[in-house]
Design a protein that fits this description.
Layout (H helix, E strand, L loop, with lengths): L1 E3 L40 H6 L12 E8 L2 E8 L5 E5 L3 E2 L2 E2 H12 L4 H10 L7 H34 L3 E9 L8 E8 L4 E9 H4 L5 H16 L4 E6 L3 H10 L4 E4 L2 H4 L8 H5 L2 H7 L9 H13 L8 H18 L14 E6 L4 E6 L7 H15 L25 H15 L1
Parallel strand pairs: 7-10, 10-11
Antiparallel strand pairs: 1-2, 2-3, 3-4, 5-6, 7-8, 8-9, 12-13
Helix pairs in contact: 2-4, 2-13, 4-12, 4-13, 11-12
Length: 432
């Protein structure tokens, strides 16, 4: 594609008020700066062509330009029609044979917990040259899943090393989460948290057709999580706090006989309505039995908050393949572990910041402490790992085989696509 150059009117943005305006003087860039650490700018087509309006050799304005794009990568070949000088310019470096910007866009979309099609639609609405969804999923499959796996494994090793150094028996909180409401969930995840530090120690992902039904996923997730803890930590599990799941209680009683099993207070209180008579409550045998197992100190409230973090990285309305779901669970854990210890926000005078929340239905308000801003150092580590894997062309073939084997009762055999379409057409042609 060939373009004749032209000039645009300069924009004196310095005269426009903006909270985003920054001015600085810089030297020529250091070529040793990694691509993920460089700043990137949004450049308009017309403004870019101004840089190629004159020949650098003879100064002639008679130029022809050839533009080639690969996703976000742009290459411009400038040919002077007067002296025939040829100049080639590229918008970004390569990481081996991959344009750096393309890989970094895929990494940014995934590591931010965004849905790829929504993010790519933003670029399309802006008419910004970008990668396709197919390219994103290739980067995710070949590089990004492995980067997340490696970083999460290193973080886990660090947490277990710190636990061994402390030498105390573990106090764990466990809870399960289904990827959709009701009894038709495809995935279930089970999380074990160190209730002293509020950090996630392990997450286990279970697919419903591994265990026969979605109702059995939580118990299987707990069994896998405990097995992982035992294989990676020699400390005794002193206490474990869960909800009132009967299958969970039985499994812990049979498999962790030396562990004190306690219930989260909320999961007992939430089953009793204010309208129920006090006499009916205090004489209920099952409640009296559960009260003896109430956790006096440690609760699972932080686990419930972590589930909200999972909803950001893996919303229940979106569908994911097995590795996509597992990677997003690990991203949620990395984000939670980095930010679970942040304190209350303070103003420039050092005073704690609070906000008032008004409730219309109660005609009252509550005072709530404002937490400090989140940090995203884990994203930097993930991006560096992704670039390293791409540079060294490291691929983990085992990740391609991670999806679980199905149970014998996992459902009917899959139909051939053409046969299914023909059956669909035949069915509706009968009604006509």
């Amino acid at each position: 594609m060939w373009h004749h150059s032209f000039m645009c009117k300069p924009i004196f943005f310095q005269s426009l008020p903006s909270d985003d305006l920054e001015t600085e003087e810089i030297h020529l860039p250091d070529e040793s700066v990694p691509p993920q650490e460089e700043r990137k700018y949004l450049v308009f087509h017309s403004a870019l062509l101004q840089l190629f309006s004159l020949c650098l050799l003879c100064g002639s304005g008679k130029q022809k330009l050839r533009l080639e794009t690969i996703g976000s990568f742009l290459s411009i070949t400038q040919i002077c029609t007067l002296c025939e000088h040829v100049r080639t310019w590229s918008s970004q470096p390569f990481i081996r044979n991959t344009p750096a910007g393309n890989l970094l866009i895929s990494a940014a979309v995934l590591f931010a917990g965004a849905i790829p099609q929504q993010a790519l639609n933003v670029f399309a609405c802006l008419r910004l040259h970008c990668i396709s969804a197919r390219t994103f999923f290739r980067h995710q499959r070949m590089t990004l899943h492995l980067a997340i796996k490696n970083v999460w494994s290193r973080k886990q090793e660090g947490m277990f090393a710190a636990l061994h150094e402390g030498g105390q028996a573990l106090i764990l909180g466990g809870d399960g989460r289904a990827d959709s409401p009701g009894h038709s969930a495809k995935y279930g995840s089970y999380t074990l948290m160190d209730l002293r530090t509020k950090k996630i120690l392990t997450l286990q992902l279970v697919q419903s057709n591994e265990v026969g039904s979605s109702n059995a996923m939580e118990k299987e997730g707990l069994a896998r999580a405990i097995d992982f803890i035992r294989r990676n930590c020699t400390l005794q599990i002193g206490k474990i706090v869960t909800d009132r799941h009967l299958q969970i209680a039985k499994w812990i009683r049979e498999n962790l006989p030396e562990t004190c099993h306690l219930y989260d207070i909320w999961h007992i209180a939430k089953d009793t309505k204010a309208s129920v008579k006090l006499s009916a409550i205090i004489t209920k045998k099952s409640l009296l039995k559960d009260i003896r197992k109430l956790s006096p100190k440690y609760q699972t409230a932080h686990l419930e908050a972590f589930h909200s973090t999972i909803n950001h990285f893996a919303p229940k309305w979106a569908a994911f393949f097995y590795m996509g779901m597992l990677s997003r669970l690990h991203l949620a854990a990395l984000h939670h572990n980095e930010n679970c210890g942040r304190g209350q926000a303070r103003n420039k005078d050092g005073e704690r910041i609070y906000k008032i929340r008004y409730k219309k239905f109660k005609k009252s308000c509550t005072v709530q402490a404002v937490q400090g801003s989140c940090t995203f150092d884990y994203v930097t580590e993930l991006t560096e790992e992704a670039v390293r894997l791409c540079e060294e062309a490291i691929v983990d073939d085992d990740l391609m085989e991670i999806p679980p084997t199905l149970t014998s009762t996992s459902g009917a055999d899959r139909l051939n696509k053409e046969a299914a379409i023909q059956a669909h057409r035949t069915r509706f042609s009968i009604d006509e």
